């Protein structure tokens, strides 16, 4: 007979320290992600504060139908998709390239300096980042407009120009996140069997061939998993940053589903409508990650599940 699995109590006692470390993560997701789930009912009711989520009359898909047929629907969908798509397409490869460059640096002091400098922006508050962007792009004394004026060019009021918002959002997001995102790739590169590189050097491969034929194929599982996770969050644009940077003049290119939900739910107190829009956003996100997972499974034989 095969070995019996140890009883649950014994496993808990054995791994009690690991479980204790995991407890805050479990409580966070349980309290803020699972307990609020019954609130989805509000999306199908004429909700009134004070009557609870189980009170009010059923309205079915009224709020969802109202959102889909509103004049803001396609604008919100387009802005949400583009503000997530641009950083994904432009910025996804930058942490990979940076990780490869960091690993190749031989000077330990410079390597630690480069990593520290690029990691720091990730830990700066979004409010501070937004304040820095607004100050740097100020039309009066911002450093960018000061440089433009020194070259004889006209100053630009970037924060009031809808055509500049997506570029500002994308570039600042990549700058803030690429260093910290590279940590996973650096760890993956360090885990690659060094004998493979030694064999490549014996065969006479140059540095570019080493990266293209050895490093990147070895990183493929990590890249695929992180890409799938990124696609899953493509509809979850950084609400705080958009809210802090946008204004009425830039709604055409800056207003996204999450900011629209905030205005409808918190400012206008239209809770049922806001919940329906948020539920729509979550369903689209699930469909995207499921489709990307199925495609990855068929093409690369790798997936999240």
Automatic annotation (TrEMBL):
ABC transmembrane type-1 domain segment(s): 77-292
Keyword Membrane tagged: yes
Keywords: Cell membrane, Membrane, Transmembrane, Transmembrane helix, Transport
Gene3D superfamilies found in the cross-reference section: MetI-like
Membrane topology, as annotated: Multi-pass membrane protein
InterPro entries for this protein: MetI-like (IPR000515), MetI-like_sf (IPR035906), UgpAE/MalFG_permease (IPR050809)
Transmembrane region(s): 17-37, 81-105, 117-137, 168-190, 211-235, 271-292
Signal sequence range: none
Protein family according to the UniProt entry: Belongs to the binding-protein-dependent transport system permease family.
PANTHER family xref list: BLL4140 PROTEIN
Name assigned to this protein: Sugar ABC transporter permease
Species annotation: Paenibacillus marchantiophytorum
């Amino acid at each position: 007979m095969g070995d019996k699995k140890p009883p649950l109590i014994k496993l808990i006692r054995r791994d009690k320290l690991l479980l204790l470390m995991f407890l805050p993560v479990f409580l966070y997701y349980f309290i803020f992600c699972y307990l609020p789930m019954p609130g989805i009912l509000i999306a199908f009711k004429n909700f009134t504060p004070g009557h609870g989520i189980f009170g009010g009359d059923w309205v079915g898909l009224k709020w969802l139908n109202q959102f889909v047929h509103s004049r803001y629907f396609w604008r919100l969908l387009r802005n949400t998709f583009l503000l997530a798509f641009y950083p994904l397409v432009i910025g996804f490869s930058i942490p990979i390239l940076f990780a490869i460059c960091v690993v190749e640096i031989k000077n330990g002091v410079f390597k630690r300096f480069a990593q520290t400098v690029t990691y720091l922006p990730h830990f700066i508050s979004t409010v501070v980042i937004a304040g820095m962007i607004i100050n740097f792009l100020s039309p009066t004394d911002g450093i960018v407009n000061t440089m433009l004026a020194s070259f004889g060019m006209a100053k630009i009021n970037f924060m009031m120009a809808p055509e500049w918002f997506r570029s500002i959002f994308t570039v600042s997001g990549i700058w803030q996140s690429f260093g910290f995102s590279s940590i996973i790739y650096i760890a993956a590169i360090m885990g690659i069997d060094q004998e493979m590189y030694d064999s490549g050097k014996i065969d006479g491969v140059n540095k570019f061939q080493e990266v293209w034929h050895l490093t990147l194929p070895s990183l493929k599982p990590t890249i695929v998993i992180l890409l799938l996770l990124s696609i899953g969050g493509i509809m979850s644009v950084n609400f705080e940053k958009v809210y802090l940077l946008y204004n009425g003049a830039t709604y055409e290119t800056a207003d996204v589903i999450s900011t629209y939900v905030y205005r409808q739910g918190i400012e206008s107190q239209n809770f049922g409508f806001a919940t329906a829009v948020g539920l729509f956003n979550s369903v689209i996100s699930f469909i995207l990650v499921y489709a990307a997972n199925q495609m990855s499974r068929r093409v690369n034989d790798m997936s999240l599940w």
